[in-house]
UniProtKB/TrEMBL annotation:
Keywords: Isomerase. This is D-ribose pyranase. One of its GO terms (biological process) is monosaccharide metabolic process. It catalyses: beta-D-ribopyranose = beta-D-ribofuranose.
Length: 142
């Protein structure tokens, strides 16, 4: 165990994060995500881990892109332009706290999201019982 690191940051996850290049994306997915369509390496954090806990652990060591207009993209299954899921608000707040700045987020519907996710460097899966959710984090320069 390393000092001041979340226990969710396993050796496999830290190695995957370290191997990522600037501008690469990480996909964070919860329950219900169509993982069978992905060829990206998957790191499972456990069935009792929430999306918010995973985002907090990852974003404590993962720099978000500052050049991108939106370094976070979330999967929108609600199909309501003014209805943002609670988990998206929470992840946006976690990201803003970790980056010490306001971090813009964009929403995408399933097909465009899957297209971007197929190019991710790594997928992190959590097993929370929350509604299906997924996020893309674009890596920046540390």
């Amino acid at each position: 165990m390393l000092k001041n690191l979340s226990p969710l940051l396993s050796g496999a996850l830290l190695s995957a994060l370290d191997a990522m290049h600037d501008g690469a994306t990480l996909t964070l997915v919860g329950s219900g995500y169509p993982e069978d369509q992905m060829t990206t390496p998957v790191v499972h954090l456990g069935d009792d881990v929430t999306t918010e806990a995973a985002a907090e652990a990852i974003l404590s060591v993962f720099p978000l892109d500052q050049e991108s207009a939106s370094p976070i993209v979330f999967l929108d299954l609600a199909d309501e332009p003014y209805d943002v899921p609670d988990v998206a608000f929470a992840v946006n707040g976690i990201a803003s706290d970790a980056e010490l700045r306001r971090v813009p987020m964009t929403r995408l519907e399933l097909e465009p999201f899957l297209e971007l996710a197929r190019n991710s460097s790594v997928m992190v899966r959590v097993g929370s019982d929350a509604p299906p959710c997924a996020f893309l984090f674009r890596r920046g320069v540390l």
